[in-house]
Amino acid sequence: MKEKLVDLFEYTYHYNSKIIEVISEKISEVDEKIVSLINHTLNAQQVWNSRILNEKSFEVWQINPIEKLEEINKHNLQKSILIVENSDLDEKIKYQNSRGESFDNTVFEMLFQAINHSTYHRGQINSLLKQKGIQPILADYIFYKR
Q: What is the DSSP letter of 66?
């Protein structure tokens, strides 16, 4: 299971990088919503990692400098893999969401949320890129594995 999670985080990193590259190259053509969504995607993974590790987290909708996005993406990958390799995936973690509500979920559930959330928002970003006349990224998992 752990190797499959690492693979999914590497897939997430790969296509987040591709999206960041397109946004960076076409920065004059993309709008605020696209920039906000890629930031939110990266921030959310950092937040989930931080909840598991009990570390300080980003704000989920904060806007980071465009030139820092790839660094954040790489750091997210490294932290996520560290968690996968060194955690009991069935361990329950207590945390608070951005509204201060308390929850507990397993490490696996939290990690899978981060992966699934990234996929969802990359789809939104691709749709917005296409509307702007910018070639979207083919980011299906099966393409990554081919």
A: G
Kindly state the DSSP code that residue 7 receives in the 8-state scheme.
H
Please state, in angstroms and rounded to a whole number, the distance separating the CA atoms of residues 30 and 131.
Answer: 10
Contact status, residue 60 vs residue 48, Cβ threshold 8 Å: no
Interatomic CA distance for residues 72 and 85, integer angstroms: 20
Q: Is there a contact between 103 and 110 (Cβ–Cβ < 8 Å)?
A: no
**Sequence letter at residue 81:** I
pLDDT digit string, tens, across residues 1-23: 999 999 999 999 999 999 999 99
Q: What is the dihedral of CA 40, 45, 47, 53, to 10 degrees?
A: -170
Note if the pTM is more than 0.90: yes
Q: Which one, of 94, 98, 112, 5, lies nearest residue 57 by Cα?
A: 98
Q: Do 107 and 50 meet the contact criterion of CB atoms below 8 Å apart?
A: no
Nearest C-alpha neighbor of 53 from the set 13, 82, 19, 24: 82
